[in-house]
Specification:
- With 202 residues, the protein is an alpha/beta fold.
- The chain has a single domain (4-198), classed as 3-Layer(aba) Sandwich (Rossmann fold), CATH 3.40.50.1820.
- Helices cover 26% and strands 18% of the residues.
- The protein has six helices and six strands.
- The protein has helices at 18-27, 43-47, 66-75, 92-103, 163-171, 192-198, and strands at residues 4-9, 51-54, 86-90, 110-116, 146-154, 176-180.
- It has a six-stranded parallel beta sheet.
- The relative contact order is 0.17.
Length: 202
């Protein structure tokens, strides 16, 4: 029996200039004792044997380039046998899926699309969208590709202001909102609400 497939696109960073990237590396705090484990690291285990998680390791995620991500994403299509897979995009991964799905025809019908803390506009407090920039007014076409759409954000997100998710909701009015006030940028170890929604997939 084939398993329910989930394609998960994780986050990353993009920068306007090389020097901005180098400064990010200089200021990054390394903790050799940190396990740095989050809910998405445990997703396959939490979901159990009925699911197969495809989690592409996107090229140069800390100096991300949309065209490179697009090529790498499409190289995984030959492994998707589920006629109604689930797509999850976290942070820049959500941005990537919004851009990709509004500009390209995905190979399958999507049973669930989950966008978790995506950013969609340039803001001085964020890394620049750069090659991930897209026309947000065109994302309404994504509704035709998905049985369900879910948008997850927290009002205390200190990395991606919640106004980004509000913009997504404006242009995708049918998307189901899941709003928190204490999750920040979803760096927590457990995400039971997402697991519950996935387990209800058609």
């Amino acid at each position: 029996m084939n398993k329910k497939q989930i394609i998960f696109i994780g986050g990353g960073n993009s920068f306007e200039k090389k020097e901005d990237f180098y400064e990010y590396l200089r200021s990054y705090q390394i903790d050799l004792n940190s396990k740095d484990e989050k809910w998405n690291d445990l997703l396959a285990k939490e979901l159990g044997d009925g699911y197969e998680l495809i989690k592409p390791v996107m090229p140069s995620k800390d100096e991300a380039d949309y065209n490179a991500w697009k090529i790498w994403f499409e190289k995984h299509f030959s492994f998707i046998y589920d006629e109604n897979p689930i797509l999850i995009g976290y942070s820049l991964g959500g941005t990537f899926l919004l851009k990709y799905l509004s500009e390209n025809k995905f190979i399958k019908n999507i049973s669930q699309l989950h966008l978790i803390g995506p950013f969609v506009e340039n803001d001085e407090s964020l890394s620049k969208l750069m090659s991930f920039e897209f026309d947000i007014s065109k994302i309404n076409t994504i509704s035709n590709l998905c049985d369900e759409m879910h948008l997850w954000y927290s009002e205390d997100d200190y990395i991606v202001p919640c106004k980004n998710s509000e913009l997504v909701k404006k242009y995708l009015p049918d998307i189901e909102l899941h709003i928190f006030n204490d999750r920040g940028h979803f760096f927590q170890l457990a995400f039971p609400e997402l697991l519950e929604a996935i387990n209800k997939a058609k």
